[in-house]
Amino acid sequence: MTKPDDTIRILIPLKVRKKNGRPKILPPADYLPSEDQAQDPHVLRAIGRAWGWRRRMEAGEFSTIQELAEAVGLAERHVSRQLRLAYLAPEVLKRLTCGREPSAVSLYDLGFLAGAAWGEQIRQALDEATS
């Protein structure tokens, strides 16, 4: 058992603010994020969503993108654009989800890049990030 005088108190200077109606924890003003966390959470979420939609379509749950869009409550154009992320080159997906280097292209551009040949995808999405 610990005695009352053995208590250790740790103070972390965080602020809680509301953003979009939800509480958000803000770090101290002098906080610098770690450089080893280069993965964009928006890209990760979009890729995960695209793969989920792709599996549902391949399983026959939906026969068209329009049906899928109605089921998930999003615009058909948005679903179509996001669904392209499930067809990115395996090397691009691996480095975007597991790698630590940032992508040279935005999430919007990744959707258009999915239609290119895999070699071109790798060059545009990853090689330019190192230059």
Give the secondary structure arrangement, pairings included:
Elements: E1 15-19, E2 22-26, H1 41-58, H2 65-72, H3 76-83, H4 90-97, H5 107-113, H6 118-130
Antiparallel strand pairs: 1-2
Helix pairs in contact: 2-3, 4-6
Task: Please give a quick description of this structure.
The protein has 131 residues and is mainly alpha-helical. It has helices at residues 41-58, 65-72, 76-83, 90-97, 107-113, 118-130, and strands at residues 15-19, 22-26.
Characterize the biggest β-sheet. Answer: 2 strands, antiparallel
Return the structural class: mainly alpha
If you average the pLDDT, what whole number results?
A: 80
Helix content: 40-55%
CA radius of gyration: 21 Å
Strand order across the biggest sheet? Answer: 1-2
Structure notes:
This protein is mainly alpha-helical and 131 residues long. It has six helices and two strands; from the N terminus they run E-E-H-H-H-H-H-H.
Name its key features.
8% strand; 131 residues; single chain; two-stranded antiparallel ribbon; mainly alpha; extended
